[in-house]
TrEMBL record:
UniProt protein name: M-phase inducer phosphatase
InterPro entries: MPI_Phosphatase, Rhodanese-like_dom, Rhodanese-like_dom_sf
General function of this protein: Tyrosine protein phosphatase which functions as a dosage-dependent inducer of mitotic progression.
PROSITE patterns: RHODANESE_3
Top EC group: hydrolase
Reaction(s) this enzyme catalyzes, per UniProt: O-phospho-L-tyrosyl-[protein] + H2O = L-tyrosyl-[protein] + phosphate
One GO BP annotation of this record: developmental process
Origin: domain of life: Eukaryota
Enzyme Commission designation: 3.1.3.48
Cellular component, GO annotation: cytoplasm; nucleus
């Protein structure tokens, strides 16, 4: 019993003193008064405290040690956290300020660095920044060249629609893998991207959100940084733009998605555009099954 209590008392320590490990309790029991004769001064002090004769083999010292150990561990954890913050000040100190800024003022672009360059309107999609055909026409005509460094117009319609008429300078990107190529291109400060499809009701908004999602994923270690923090959606799409600004369309024409001469093309490109999404879902399912 004495051996057990002694070891229970010191189990918080890494090592035992040599004289304790060599003590043997297998000898013929002796009276308590005589036991002290085989103990060193240190053991006597540990077993028989002056403050409390019934303290249980120095349990007060044990509790104090455990308490100080817990405090020391907490202090070390706090020091480690502070150290990490000092090494990554942007992540530790700026994120909260940026999130607060974005929550309080919706006019800031997605990385919180500055206000939106273009005037926006309330469109069909409340989570996206929409601009009018007139604003896009002003961009194409160079009216914003003094405040933006570059712009991209991403037309998410199918190729036969794009060939039948598109906004001057637009790029045709209707596939997810094509959108991903944008994140491989060099970026510029004060660069804007404008998405649209025929009505900007489905394909354009989906591709815009896809780019933003992949951009966040790419820059997750440097939140809230983004390759493209300023993205817009053309309100009511190409149809509205063509009706208002036909001179800025090349060719000056509008071919709808449901054109009677392109029913086969429609089926082909629908399947092609959805195949990538289906492949991504299967890949995700396989990963989920492995875990």
């Amino acid at each position: 019993m004495l051996s057990k209590r002694l070891f229970d008392t010191v189990d918080e320590f890494d090592t035992f003193p040599a004289f304790v490990s060599t003590l043997s309790f297998d000898y013929t029991p002796v009276k308590t008064d005589n036991l002290t004769c085989v103990m060193t001064t240190n053991i006597k002090r540990s077993l028989f405290t002056d403050d409390d004769e019934d303290s249980g083999l120095g349990m007060d010292d044990h509790v104090n040690f455990t308490s100080s150990l817990q405090k020391s561990t907490k202090r070390q954890r706090a020091d480690d956290d502070n150290s990490r913050c000092s090494k990554r000040p942007k992540v530790c100190s700026d994120i909260k300020a940026v999130v607060t800024k974005l929550e309080e003022n919706d006019d800031f672009i997605a990385d919180g660095s500055r206000l939106h360059t273009l005037p926006t309107i309330t469109g069909k999609h409340s989570d996206l920044k929409s601009i009018t055909p007139q604003t896009l026409a002003d961009v194409v005509n160079g009216d914003y060249d003094d405040v933006i460094s570059d712009y991209k117009i991403i037309d998410c319609r199918y190729p036969y629609e794009f060939e039948g008429g598109h906004i001057r300078g637009a790029e045709n990107m209707y596939l997810h893998e094509t959108i991903l190529t944008l994140l491989q291109e060099p970026t510029k400060d004060k660069q804007i991207v404008i998405f649209h499809c025929e009505f900007s009701s489905e394909r354009g908004p989906k591709m815009l959100r896809f780019l933003r999602s992949k951009d966040r994923e790419l820059n997750k270690e440097n939140y809230p940084s983004l390759n493209f923090p300023e993205i817009y959606l053309l309100d009511n799409g190409y149809k509205a733009f063509f009706n208002e600004q036909p001179a800025l369309c090349d060719p000056v024409s509008y071919r709808p998605m449901l054109h009677s001469d392109h029913s086969e093309d429609l089926r082909h490109f629908r399947v092609k555009s959805k195949s990538w999404t289906a492949g991504e879902k299967r890949k995700y399912a396989r990963k989920a099954m492995r875990f």
